[in-house]
Design a protein that fits this description.
Elements: E1 2-8, E2 14-17, E3 20-28, E4 34-40, H1 47-60, E5 66-72, E6 75-84, E7 93-99, H2 101-105, E8 122-127, H3 129-140, E9 153-154, E10 163-168, H4 175-184, E11 187-195, E12 201-209, E13 216-220, E14 228-235, E15 242-246, E16 256-260, E17 270-274, H5 281-294, E18 299-307, E19 317-322, E20 331-342, E21 347-353
Parallel strand pairs: 9-12, 13-19, 15-17
Antiparallel strand pairs: 1-2, 1-5, 3-4, 3-20, 4-7, 5-6, 6-7, 8-10, 11-12, 14-18, 15-16, 18-21, 19-20, 20-21
Helix pairs in contact: 3-4
């Protein structure tokens, strides 16, 4: 059974079910997942009923004020804020464009919203990279009562190797900006959409360096009808073996750190990045070293199709068995799920990568 619900964007509570004739979605590791829905319109109603229905649908599709949640057989597979809803007269449905929590975090400041002078605010946070990311979300949803700052996301506690990061209000960073810097240091973040115990919707934040969910799936690609439409893509455009980061300062007073991978099998490939908000040499060095890992080899991504009821999610580990394929070596290949996409059909697409890659 397929159902689409409109949920309150602040609390995650279900407002009502909406009549969707189409719904496509994707969930990604460390990146925004988008959705698109077609909501049925009925011009055959009487004028009075049409007016009531029109008002109800406009409320259920309020920009940023509603989250559309897609459930398959009672399990939530996607939730996204209503961002666009173009309407064309004469077309039977209204198109709705959606963005998951990453879309809101790109628009929510990561400073203390109660600070009277944001340019003077600063805070030093000590904890793991995942803790740093969670604290940014916490700052982004805490502050004055109006406009409401709430968002339906559960933030567990995160352990791990502690680092210290100082955040300055005058940088005016969004939560998404803070997360982007942490991702560059090797952190992975996944906001898992859920139907929580009371029926409401929320995202569960899961994070860590090279994060995996702990679940493992196994597929026999060359001998199993469950897996279809296998394809491989590869891209070496971002490969580097000589990384350099430019931090705070200008001209000869710039903070710069660099490193190179002398064991790289490729000719010298430079990569220069700027982080003008970083004055910590150790943090800049960490970014340099992470680039040599993340971009040390071409990105190779595998995609394949499975049935929509297959138990698999972003962050899961998969073992793919090949035997007799003309391109892929025989045996097991271990990968991590980085993207899942689907629609209202009985199939979905799974994208997997090795940990790291450009």
């Amino acid at each position: 059974m397929l159902q689409v619900f409109s949920c309150d964007a602040v609390t995650g509570a279900i407002v009502d079910e909406v009549p969707a004739s189409a719904f496509s979605w994707n969930r990604l590791l460390s990146a925004q997942g988008d959705g698109r829905a077609t909501i049925k319109l009925d011009a055959s109603l009487s004028k009075e009923k049409l007016r009531a229905r029109r008002l109800a649908l406009r409320d259920l599709l309020t920009h940023w004020g509603r989250i559309l949640r897609f459930d398959r057989d009672g399990k939530t597979v996607y939730g996204g804020y209503v961002i666009e809803r173009p309407y064309t007269r004469g077309v039977e449905g209204i198109q709705v464009e959606l963005g998951d929590l990453w879309a809101l975090l790109a628009r929510r400041g990561a400073w203390d919203h109660s600070a009277p002078n944001v340019e003077k605010w600063k805070q030093t946070v000590t904890g793991s990279l995942a803790h740093q990311a969670a604290q940014a979300v916490l700052r982004g949803r805490t502050g004055p009562a109006l406009p409401p700052m709430g968002m339906p996301v559960t933030l567990p506690s995160f352990g791990g190797t502690a680092v210290s990061r100082t955040y300055y209000g005058y940088h005016l960073e969004m939560v998404g900006d803070v997360h982007a810097d942490l991702l560059d240091e090797g952190l992975d973040i996944y906001f898992r959409p859920r139907n929580i115990g009371n029926g409401d919707f929320d995202w569960l934040m899961e994070a860590g360096p090279a994060w995996v969910s702990g679940a493992q799936r196994e597929f026999f690609v060359t001998s199993d009808d469950v897996v279809t439409a296998f394809r491989e893509t590869s891209d070496g455009s971002r490969v580097t073996n000589n990384a350099r980061y430019v931090g705070e300062g200008s001209e000869v007073d710039m903070l710069v750190r660099s490193n190179r991978n002398t064991a790289s099998p490729y000719p010298l490939l430079d990569r220069v990045s700027e982080r003008k908000n970083i004055a910590n040499a150790a943090q800049l060095t960490a970014l340099v070293n992470q680039d040599l890992v993340a971009y040390g080899a071409p990105t190779t991504q595998w995609e394949f199709s499975v049935t929509a009821d297959t138990e698999i999610d972003v962050g899961d580990s998969v073992r793919l068995w090949f035997d007799g394929d003309p391109w892929i070596a025989d045996g097991y290949h271990d990968r991590r799920v980085v993207k899942i996409s689907g629609d209202m059909s009985d199939r979905m697409t799974v994208s997997v990568q090795s940990t790291g890659g450009a």
